[in-house]
């Protein structure tokens, strides 16, 4: 068993948190992750209204007795969703953990803390992670450049971001990006994190409510099968490589603006991919971790495997590399006795 500050803070068995995933983070997946010993997260904006979201939270509560939480990503928008109403729905339903991302955590952290909710905040830079600690969040999620979704504009990989965060941040840290197995969990712990947040890996599970074609595409893909879109707009996003994301990259690289690609990147088209299995219907998310994904297990099987493999790496692979003078015999000498 791996006991860390994250397992203690969240009252979970395994130091693994589900990433918030648009059109994927529904009750079935969140409950499955929580029942497997991690922390499942429902994605607020996958639900058309706060009222529908409230009902889905209540449904999740019938599927698990374990802790689970919700993700709310708040981004600047001309016509923003009613973010506060989604939070109010979560508070009314008795949610215990909220992950925020996308904007200043100072906006909602005081409201959530007053309600007795544990607050996680996802940051794409060390500066933002430190700011989140200053405003009172309970734990910070540090995104490495390898992640799906929005990795920020600094292009800092986890091998640097995680230990750099651990040097200056005193609250628990979750490492996100590039983690798909026990080796990744062990590495994150070695780098100073207290657990991991995984998303792409959980897309390829039996409980993920997406088409089997998408799951198989993740299994078949390697580390070269993603695109970074919106680089020129300073809103970088890592998505699966397909004809649509290739076209978006080409248009913007040749001087295009957002209006030129709006029709290609709509959320409705991405949802169609997940629902129909047409991999060319729109933009859909995938991280570099897909190169390490080779099957479609249940969440229970996956989380158990990740922790057991991490323990094996720590106990045998790493500890076995340490030797003492008594364990070795110098070349050219003969043992005495």
Major sheet:
8 strands, parallel
CATH topological fold name of the domain at 5-211: TIM Barrel
Q: Radius of gyration over alpha carbons?
A: 21 Å
Fraction of helical residues:
25-40%
- Reading the helices and strands in chain order gives HEHEHEHEHEHEHEHEHHEEHHHH
Global morphology: globular
In words, what does this structure look like?
The protein has a domain of 207 residues: TIM Barrel (Alpha-Beta Barrel), CATH 3.20.20.70. Helices cover 39% and strands 13% of the residues. It has an 8-stranded parallel β-sheet. α6 links the parallel β5 and β6. The longest helix is centred in the C-terminal third of the chain and has 20 residues. The protein is globular and about 70 Å long.
Task: Give a quick set of tags describing it.
alpha/beta; two-stranded antiparallel ribbon
Concise summary:
The chain has 14 helices and ten strands. It is α/β, with parallel strands linked by helices. The longest helix has 20 residues.
Element layout with pairings:
Elements: H1 5-10, E1 16-18, H2 27-35, E2 40-43, H3 50-63, E3 68-73, H4 83-92, E4 97-101, H5 109-114, E5 118-123, H6 126-134, E6 139-143, H7 158-168, E7 173-176, H8 182-190, E8 195-198, H9 200-203, H10 212-220, E9 226-229, E10 237-240, H11 243-253, H12 258-261, H13 267-276, H14 299-318
Parallel strand pairs: 1-8, 2-3, 3-4, 4-5, 5-6, 6-7, 7-8
Antiparallel strand pairs: 9-10
